[in-house]
Amino acid sequence: MSAVIATRGLVKRYGRLRAVDGIDLDVRAGDVYGFLGANGSGKTTTVRMLLGLVLATSGDIELLGARTARARQRVLPRVGALIEGPASYGHLSGRENLALLDASGPGGSWRTRTRRIAAVLEQVGLGGVGRRPVKAYSLGMRQRLGLAGALLRRPDLLVLDEPTNGLDPQGISEIRALLIDLHRGGTTIFLSSHLLAEVEQLCSRVGVLDRGRLVLQDELATLTAPTGATVVVTPAPEQARALLDGRLTSVTGDRLVVRGSDPAEVNALLVRGGVPVTGLAIERPTLEEVVLARTAASPDRVEAHP
After folding, report:
1. Is 302 a residue whose pLDDT tops 50?
2. How far is CA 132 from CA 8, 98, 150, in A?
3. Do 265 and 176 sit in the same domain of this protein?
C-alpha cells in the first residue's frame, strides 16, 4: 500500500531542546491514522512540519508521494488541514471566510465556489448559520467552520489536530460520523489527538509520541489483539483460585485472568466445581493500557515547552 505520509529521521530542535526526535512516520493510503501523545509530546510541532508551517531541523518528509520541499505548491492543495485552532475574520460570516480561504490558494475554482461552500457548511452542521459573523460563534461552531475549510477542496489527505476540541458530546459524535463517511469515500485521515477513546473508535493505525520520540506504530487491531487468556468475574474468587491453581496470571478482587483463550472451557471447569460466574471474556488490552505501557516509564517526567 502506498505511503501518503512518510518521514525519515524527522527532527525539530529549539535551542538545546529536541521537540521532535528522529521520528519515522508511515501513513498509508486508506488509513485513519491516530497520532497520540500527551500535551507537550511534540504532536503539533510534527503536524506543522508536515504542512510546511515549521521548518524541520533535519530529516525528510513526503506527502502524497512527493518531497514537500520540492513540490509543495503541487501537493498541498490536495491536503485539507485543521491545526491547533481555526483562524478566521470575526467580523465576516462563515461563508465569507470560506470564500476568502478558497480564493487565497491554488486549486479552487471560482465557478463552483458557492456550491462547494454550501456543501461543506451543510456537511459540518453549519448550513443554517446564515450571515451571522464568526465572532458570534461558539467555540464548537468555530471548530466546525475550521473543519469546513479543511474539506473545501475535497482533499485526498485530511490532517486534523484535536478536531473535536470545544465540541459537546453530540458534536463529537457528529464529527466522528463525518470522518467515518469521508474515509469510506476514499479520504486518508491523519488525526492528532490525546483522546484515547476517540482514536480507538475511529482509527485503523496508531502512532504514539512520547517526549518527541515515536515509541509505537502499528495496526490498532494488532495492538489490541487477544492475549491468549480469559477474564473471569466471580463473587467467589478464592474458590475459583483453588480450582484454577497454576493457570492464574492475576487476581484483582473478583476479577481473575486465566491462561487459555477458550472461555467455554474455563466456564465449564468452574461450573463443575460449583463456582458462580458473573462475567466471562477473552482478554484483550485496551488502547489506554497499550499506550501507558510504552509511555509511563518515567515517574518524574517534566514536560518541556519551546
Report:
1. no
2. 45, 14, 20
3. no
Which pLDDT belongs to residue 209? Answer: 94
Q: How many residues does the chain have?
A: 306
Range of the domain at 262: 229-283
Query: Does one domain contain both 130 and 257?
Result: no
User: Model pTM?
Assistant: 0.84
Q: Residues near 20 by Cβ (< 8 Å), separated by ≥ 6?
A: 10, 11, 12, 42, 45, 46, 49, 56, 212
Instruction: Give yes or no: residues 39 and 79 share one domain.
Output: yes
> What pLDDT digit, counting tens, does each position of 78-116 carry?
899 988 777 788 999 999 999 998 886 665 677 888 899
Summarised one tens digit per residue, pLDDT across range 153-169 is: 889 999 998 888 778 88
Task: Tell me the C-alpha distance between 211 and 21, whole Å.
Answer: 8
Give ∠ CA 194-19-291 in degrees, rounded to 5. Answer: 35
Which residue in 82, 26, 47, 34 sits closest to 199, CA to CA? 34
Give, in order, the Cα–Cα distances in Å from 40 to each of 29, 88, 159: 28, 25, 19
